[in-house]
Amino acid sequence: MHIAIIGSGYVGLVSGACLADFGHVVTCVDKEPTRIDALKRGEIPIFEPGLDDLVASNVRQKRLNFTTNLAEAVAGAHAVFIAVGTPSRRGDGHADLSYVYAASKEIAAALTGYAVIVTKSTVPVGTGDEVERIVRETRPDLEFAVVSNPEFLREGAAISDFKRPDRIVVGAETDRAREVMSEIYRPLYLNQSPILFTGRRTSELTKYAANAFLATKITFINEMADLCEKVGANVQDVARGIGLDNRIGSKFLHAGPGYGGSCFPKDTLALVRTAQEAGSPVEIVETVERVNIARKKRMAERVVAACQGDVAGKKIALLGLAFKPNTDDMRDAPSLDIVSALQAAGANVHAFDPEAAKQARPLMKDVTFADDAYACAADADALVIVTEWDEFRALDLDRVRDILKSPVVVDLRNIYRPEDMKRRGFSYVSIGRP
Asked: Under DSSP, is residue 28 helix (H, G, I), strand (E, B) or coil?
């Protein structure tokens, strides 16, 4: 099938490369010429393991193309995926749908026959209705369908998630649209990946409900970690104890500095605003959002406390800046709040991240960026583990102890054992463990 992807950012590029790998002919569109030129040269603008090879392979096979010409890409397409950004709108927290609606109008003008317009972007309930209205208004003569097909991609594991998904959710209102979507995902359906067909509004809400639930699990275990610290319990054992219950599950029960990234912060906020406008507030999600924001801001206090209550003039070394490992995404990363608070307390912040330094530099003023973990730690008064990159899990701890000015480690991801760190002579602070 011929498929056009409008938007060549994270979701659009991963989706386009994977669909091309299924055998479809895919054209990814973006308004930014420099991005398209870079993609044509084989330069991937984001860090996602395996994506560079997948793109290169499908470009060689002539199944994946890049262009700034939307009309050219859309003409003759069987399906057009909208994968543009929906950031939080300034002032009220609603999802900014201006890019979705602008793309809808351009798609309508460019279509040459029946096509399914697929909203892959994360959008509030009712967005598909407005997209349909825009297209009908622009092209009253056109035969088309608007479908919701939310993405459930984890940054750092997006290719695996796309090719081996837990489920594929499709919100379609007509049999013809469902047939087109079934054909697009046929390779996955044959591998027994379940396709859940729903109404369009149900599909749109499913995406927000999923992210809000996962954000709630993270926030719950973080609050349990705080309670563990007060009563002398171990949050990792608590997490195992509840996670072995199949009704709860073990995923997203890892205590830490709070969630960040491109999805959970903006999607929980958008769901809160949608629910408030509908007259059915989601008070649990409102609390999750508030608690998570406060938690990220409090993490620096742990570092200050570990440094005897004063970091003024001290070198504090941070390992990891991205909101999670295997990505360079800095959106709403806990490190942003931690750095800001430490600097406000007078600390000299040094940092290292294997992939996110380029994205972090413009966001973190007066931070010294190191080339590796040991250069970052050298002569520091405290070492803070913020993101659990694999390479931080097996540091030469004796070397780290020797190069630190003070053997203080604040482990916000619990990647080391307290007894091991104590035996090696560290003053060690972790999350929710005695």
From this structure: strand
Which residues are registered as beta bridge partners of 66?
28
Q: Are residues 142 and 84 in the same domain?
A: yes
DSSP state string for 354-365: TTTHHHHGGGST
Residues 49 and 184 in one domain: yes
**Residues listed for the chain:** 434
Number of domains in the chain: 3
pTM of the model: 0.93
407: domain CATH number?
Answer: 3.40.50.720
Domain encompassing residue 236: 208-289
Containing 144, the helix (H) or strand (E) segment is strand 144-148
225's CB contacts (< 8 A; 6+ apart) are 235, 255, 431, 432
263 a catalytic residue:
yes
Q: Do 121 and 224 fall into the same domain?
A: no
* Residue 203, in any domain of the structure: no
Each residue of 132-178: pLDDT tens digit?
999 999 999 999 999 999 999 999 999 999 999 999 999 999 999 99
Q: What is the mean pLDDT of the chain?
A: 96
Q: What is the pLDDT of residues 272-303, one digit of tens each?
A: 999 999 999 999 999 999 999 999 999 999 99
Q: Of residues 18, 228, 263, 376, which has the active-site annotation?
A: 263
Q: Same domain, yes or no, for 19 and 165?
A: yes
DSSP, res 193: P
| Cα–Cα distance list, 308 to 229, 319, 343, 345, 406 (Å) | 18, 21, 16, 13, 11
Residue 12 to residue 340: CA distance in whole angstroms: 32
Cα angle at 275 between 269 and 276, to 5 degrees? 90
Note whether 382 and 241 are same-domain residues. Answer: no
